[in-house]
Amino acid sequence: KQEVTQIPAALSVPEGENLVLNCSFTDSAIYNLQWFRQDPGKGLTSLLLIQSSQREQTSGRLNASLDKSSGRSTLYIAASQPGDSATYLCAVSTGNTPLVFGKGTRLSVIA
Amino acid sequence: GAVVSQHPSWVICKSGTSVKIECRSLDFQATTMFWYRQFPKQSLMLMATSNEGSKATYEQGVEKDKFLINHASLTLSTLTVTSAHPEDSSFYICSARELRDSRRAGELFFGEGSRLTVL
Predict the structure, then answer these.
(1) Between residues B1 and B38, which one has the greater pLDDT?
(2) A103–B43: do the CB atoms touch at under 8 Å?
(3) Would the CB atoms of B110 and A103 count as touching at under 8 Å?
(4) What are the tens digits of pLDDT across the range A17-59?
(5) Range A16-20 contact pairs with CB under 8 angstroms and sequence separation of 24 or more
């Protein structure tokens, strides 16, 4: 059974700092991996999708990497801003199946 | 990007009543939609997989007679919480998969969620 773990559970950083969020999964036979952002009381916003054949994806200040063999992904946020404060969720898919989610990392960027 | 819309955003109902939540894919066709629930400060828990034109597949522990799912078209799935009780109060989120755009193959898009409060 696929399990997804995110570390740390919570993170607080000063504005402008670069940061890394970690995600690990137990079954490396994944189809893709997605990073989401969730604001309090809101749905999910897809940030980056990495297919199993890819090693990284970039969107603006965000960069996500994937090391399938070791079961790890990282989300790198450059020059963090208070507006980046949210919960970041990592999720993996093993095909045309539902995503398996981690518990998320709650990020606070302090102005 | 693809948009998934949920309605209502929030609903308050009395115990014993039924509540219907709609999930629509606005700019793409979704043969498969997923329904999740999320308790406060917890991650999403998959409830069921909704397939257009066929019966939904429920996860273990989810009562199919209580959480009725109908996926009547390629753009609409509904979740009906029947005879709701306070313990059903939760945040319900749907998602749909974009299949036709190969650049986003397998990517899931989520609705804004529906907060249900049962008094």
Answers:
(1) B38
(2) yes
(3) no
(4) 999 999 999 999 998 899 999 998 788 888 999 989 999 999 9
(5) A16/A79, A16/A80, A17/A79, A17/A80, A17/A109, A18/A76, A18/A77, A18/A78, A18/A79, A18/A80, A19/A76, A19/A77, A19/A80, A19/A107, A20/A74, A20/A75, A20/A76, A20/A77
